[in-house]
Automatic annotation (TrEMBL):
The lineage of its organism: Bacteria, Bacillati, Bacillota, Bacilli, Lactobacillales. This is GP-PDE domain-containing protein. GO terms for molecular function: phosphoric diester hydrolase activity. CDD domains: GDPD_TtGDE_like. GO terms for biological process: lipid metabolic process. InterPro entries: GP_PDE_dom, PLC-like_Pdiesterase_TIM-brl. It comes from the Bacteria. It comes from Enterococcus sulfureus ATCC 49903. PANTHER family: GLYCEROPHOSPHODIESTER PHOSPHODIESTERASE, CYTOPLASMIC, GLYCEROPHOSPHORYL DIESTER PHOSPHODIESTERASE. It holds the Pfam family GDPD. Residues 2-238 form the GP-PDE domain.
Length: 249
């Protein structure tokens, strides 16, 4: 059955990439959470989407220009008008600790944000951290093929996904690129590329799927999963879809 991934925790209802968002999604019962990872000035793995701080915090400048201690002084929920509590930028280790504490057995999709900035040794740091005991299933994803290839060489066991806008040529390449076992394409492209995808042999998990009609299409097409900013809505629709299948068959 198609798995539901909470995009940046629950971006539509909570401050994105915060412990509050991840806790909310896990407690909802999602199949997976998705998060984004950069390196701080002192080489700590921190969870934030943008290369810069302005959009999602009350700080400014590039993430890599600040130490972890400096990043921890910022409020990662200040931009989100529906949420009053202060939320710090979490480290990846803090998010994974939360997953273990909650007994989360789903997938943690770690997007490695190396498509704009080259973070030396980020792949080694990720693989080292993921050696810990865990209740969850880790997955790496990235737009950067070199990053995925490095991760595959360091740890061929953990599954990896190529995030892509999508074209006919990239689909052909993705089928043969051994470092990945899945793709995470833009949903708008997926809608127009049904013929190209019909012969694709790896898992497909589109982003970002927020409308009910889009979610229903993902269920109908039996995609491996999809990423959504509204996991609660997606879970309710998934239950309805399953009930509909039982009635139909």
């Amino acid at each position: 059955m198609t798995k539901i991934f909470a995009h940046r925790g629950s971006k539509g209802t909570h401050p994105e990439n915060t412990l509050a968002a991840f806790r909310h999604s896990i407690e909802l019962g999602v199949d997976g959470i998705e998060l984004d990872v950069h390196l701080s000035k002192d080489q700590e793995l921190v969870v934030i989407h943008d290369e810069t701080l302005e959009r999602t915090t009350n700080g400014s400048g590039f993430v890599y220009e600040h130490t972890l201690a400096e990043l921890k002084e910022l409020n990662a929920s200040s931009w989100f008008s529906l949420y009053d509590d202060v939320q710090q930028i979490p480290t990846l280790e803090e998010v994974l600790t939360l997953c273990n504490h909650l007994g989360f057995t789903g997938i943690v999709n770690i997007e490695v944000k190396t498509d704009q900035i080259d973070y030396p040794m980020i792949e080694e740091r990720l693989v080292s951290l993921l050696q810990q005991e865990k209740t969850f299933i880790p997955m790496y994803s990235s737009f950067n093929l070199l990053t995925l290839d490095r991760l595959h060489k360091l740890d061929p066991i953990i599954k990896k996904a190529w995030i892509m806008e999508g074209t006919d040529s990239t689909i052909d390449f993705a089928n043969y690129f051994q470092a990945i076992d899945s793709i995470h394409p833009n949903f708008e492209w997926v809608v127009t590329a049904q013929e190209e995808l019909s012969g694709f042999t790896k898992s497909i998990r589109p982003w970002t799927v927020n409308q009910e009609s889009e979610m229903w299409m993902c269920f109908e097409k039996k995609f491996s999963g999809f990423h959504t900013d509204y996991p609660e809505k997606a879970l309710a629709l998934k239950q309805l879809y399953v009930q509909n299948q039982v009635v139909t068959y």
